[in-house]
Design brief:
By secondary structure, the protein is mostly beta strands. It has 1 helix and 7 strands. It has one domain. It has a 7-stranded mixed sheet, with no helix packed on it.
């Protein structure tokens, strides 16, 4: 698993900050371990395995984030369920290009209505515990 902030330019990581706790559809479900437990929210910025993906569940076991990595082991995109500049949580995607986190692409609205059916259908198998 990867590590936030411990990526070496030569490849790999200085320490393991995540551990696998299960799988959904063959994708590893991971949780934070190690000395950086205070970092909340997102999955690692880099992966030890090129082209892999990880799923993060919240403390209640509900879907929080799906993160896909490219062959360069950097983040390609996220699917998140949360409040992104809104009062209520909704399902949305962030496509990465460079170092900045782009504006979300809504998959549902805050009422839970599906507004991007193709993305929803593609990733609905990972949405453990999310009721729309």
């Amino acid at each position: 698993m990867g590590s936030s902030g411990s990526y070496l330019k030569s490849g790999g990581f200085t320490s393991q900050e995540w551990e696998q706790v299960g799988t959904i559809k063959g994708v590893k479900i991971v949780k934070k371990i190690g000395i950086k437990k205070c970092i909340k929210g997102n999955l690692p910025f880099f992966s030890n395995t090129p082209g892999t993906a990880y799923v993060l569940l919240d403390s209640d076991g509900k879907f929080s984030q799906f993160r896909q990595y490219g062959e360069d082991r950097k983040v390609k995109f996220d699917i998140d369920y949360g409040r992104h500049n809104s009062a209520k949580p909704y399902l949305h995607m962030h496509m990465y290009a460079g170092k900045t986190r782009p504006k979300p692409i809504p998959i549902t609205n805050t009422k839970g209505d599906i507004i991007n059916k193709s993305l929803y259908e593609k990733y609905k198998g990972f949405l453990k515990g999310i009721k729309l």
